[in-house]
Amino acid sequence: MKNKYQGFTRVDLKRKGFNTAVQLNPSMGFMNGTDLIWQFPDSPKAALLIAHGCNGRAANFWDKSSGCPMCVGLPEERLLVLHALERKFAVLTISSVGKCWTFGKEIETVKWIIMHWITTNKLEKLPLVALGASSGGHFVSALATEMRFSSIVLMIAEGLFDPSVMLKDYPPTLFLHMPKDTRRMRMIAANMETLRRMGVDVKEVRCFEFPLTPNYFSDRIPGLNLACSVQFFEMLRDRGFVDALGYMRKDGRATQWKKALKEKHCFSEKHQLKDHIQEELNLAFAYHEMTSLQSDDIFGWFDSHIIVDQKPHML
Fold first, then answer.
1. Residue 62 in contact with residue 52, Cβ under 8 Å?
2. pLDDT by residue (tens digit) across 9-61?
3. What does the alpha-carbon distance between residue 24 and residue 34 come to, in Å, rounded to a whole number?
4. How do beta strands 89-94 and 46-51 pair?
5. Per residue in 44-80, is it b (16+ CB within 10 Å) or e — as a string?
6. Which of 93, 83, 166, 182 lies closest to 132 in space, CA to CA?
7. Separation of alpha carbons 168 and 43, rounded Å
8. Cα 125 to Cα 215: distance, rounded to the nearest angstrom
9. If you write DSSP's letter for every residue of 172-234 in order, what string do you get?
């Protein structure tokens, strides 16, 4: 019997984090008006700050558990942390005070939090790196003028660069972006040229759209079984939300999938996973979303720029 899904390309997700022996078991704190969540691997080789995008929070990066009842474990965020821990990075996530990150006072607040965390946990000799997505990418690019990072990654963000205040030893910068957002891609190209003229090591990684498959959602989202994943995929196909090859016709945020989902009994008890599903739809469309699929590029970049003789983190 011919497989009715023959021709659909399955995204290779097996090696992307689900089979890791690492478990999420973070510590939580509240400092200077915001929450922070962190975890250490055995024998960490570096410390990683991750800054979320607008409407995000530190709790998105960690699975809900008795030790972190407020955590929600969004699929791409949690996989980034799992990859980081597996590569021996101590991970710190901090929530912005408002909807998006701001500059000025919040820069000073985060600097203080990071240094307090480093000192308290005796991490002074470890290299410090940072990753920021969207608003968090802009924030990290500005924070890098105030703190010494071995390297940074700006995800779906062109960054904020003012040559008049940037130091000559601005950290090596990787731009990880989605070229479907052509306006942002042009700004990234311009900023990469600015950094190159300053002698900064820069690189870009482009993230492209890919087709959905029947098992895509169960592969990416813990707690969502294969039967529901297949049912949801079939609904997307039957309603015309995906084309004949499985590609999203529109960004997930502009697709009325939530209304159609109410008719599916399989999801009657999984409303808490709607944000998880939304993220994966956005990722497949590849316009503007957090992604862990390029983790090898991200942590390869960090590894290639780790400084053994670490200078003080404060400039």
1. no
2. 344 444 344 456 889 999 999 998 999 999 999 999 999 999 999 999 999 99
3. 21
4. parallel
5. bebbbbbbbbeebbbbbbbbeeeebeebbbbbbbbbb
6. 93
7. 32
8. 44
9. PEEEEE-TTSHHHHHHHHHHHHHHHHTT--EEEEE-------TTHHHHHSTT--HHHHHHHHH
Please return the burial class of 148, using the count of CB atoms within 10 Å of its CB with bins 0-12, 13-18 and 19+.
middle
- The region that residue 265 occupies, defined by phi over 0 for left and psi between -120 and 50 for alpha, beta otherwise, is alpha
Task: Report residue 252 as tokens.
Answer: 């997930």
For residue 196, is it left (φ>0), alpha (ψ between -120 and 50) or beta?
Answer: alpha
Residue with tokens 């590029």: 297
d(CA 192, CA 207): 17
Task: Say how far apart CA 233 and CA 216 lie, in whole Å.
Answer: 8
Total count of residues recorded for the chain? 315
Give phi and psi for 44, each to the nearest 5. Answer: -65, 145
Question: Mean pLDDT across the stretch 286-310?
Answer: 92
Residue with tokens 């980081």: 84
Q: Hey, CA dihedral for 53, 74, 81, 59, is it positive or negative?
A: positive
Secondary element (H or E) of residue 31 = strand 27-31
Do 184 and 158 touch, CB atoms closer than 8 A? Answer: yes
